[in-house]
Amino acid sequence: MDSRGVRIRRVDKASEASSEPMLRRRPRQSRARASARALQESFVQVLLERGYRGITVREVALVAGVSVGTFYEYFGDLRALAAVSIAVNVKALERELRGVAARARGEPPLAVVAAMSGAMSARVLGAPVRWRALLQLEREVSTPAAYRRQYAYWVDLWREALDMAVPQPHSAALAHMVHAITYGWLSQCLLTLEPPLDTAALQAQLHTALFGYLERAGTAG
C-alpha cells in the first residue's frame, strides 16, 4: 500500500462525473484540520467494526463528533475519505522506513534489508486487524493503474535504501524482488491468518526467504 496509490483530486466539472475519489478542499485552519483528522480516525474505527460496505457518512460524522455538512466540506464521498485514510496510515509507515534506511546507511545489503523488513513487519503484523482492513479497503477503492503506481513507488523506496548499502548492489531487479517477497508475505499473513499473530516467527520466516534470495543473488554482503 501507498499514499500515492489512490488519486485524490479537487472537485471540478470533470471530476464530478468521474469515479475517482475526490477531496473537496484541504483544511487550513487548526480547527478544520482537527475535524478532518477526526473524520479519518472515525472512518477507520467504523471500518474495523462494520467493514467498508457497512459504513455510512452519517455514522462516520457522528463518531467524529461533527455534522454531515462538515463531512461534505472536505470529502466528496466515502471513497474519497477512504483514500485519505489509507494515505495517512501508509505515509506514517513510509516515514518510519525512511528513518530506518537512513540509520542503516553504509551497512551491507543484508543488514539494510533486515532492518527495513523488520520494521515493516513489526508495524504491520503488530496491528493485523487494522492493516488487514486497510489492505482490503485499498483493493475496494484503488484502480489497477493506481495499484501499479503505488507498487512502483515502494520498489523505488527499497531501491533508494539499497543504494545506501555498502557494497552497493547495483541491481534494479533486486529492489523489485525484495519488495515482492516482503509485500507478498505480509499481505498473505494479513489475509489468511487470524490474530493474535506470532510476529517473531513470521518475521523469521520472511527473513529466511529474503536472505536466501540475497545470498543466491550474490548481494548478501
Automatic annotation (TrEMBL):
Keywords, comma-separated and alphabetical: DNA-binding, Transcription, Transcription regulation
Organism: mine drainage metagenome
GO molecular function, one term: transcription cis-regulatory region binding
Domain spans labelled HTH tetR-type: 33-93
Matches recorded under InterPro entries: Homeodomain-like_sf (IPR009057), HTH-type_TetR-like_transc_reg (IPR050109), HTH_TetR (IPR001647)
Disulfide bond among keywords: no
Protein name according to UniProt: Bacterial regulatory protein, tetR family
Annotated spans, Disordered: 10-31
Lineage, broadest ranks: unclassified sequences, metagenomes, ecological metagenomes
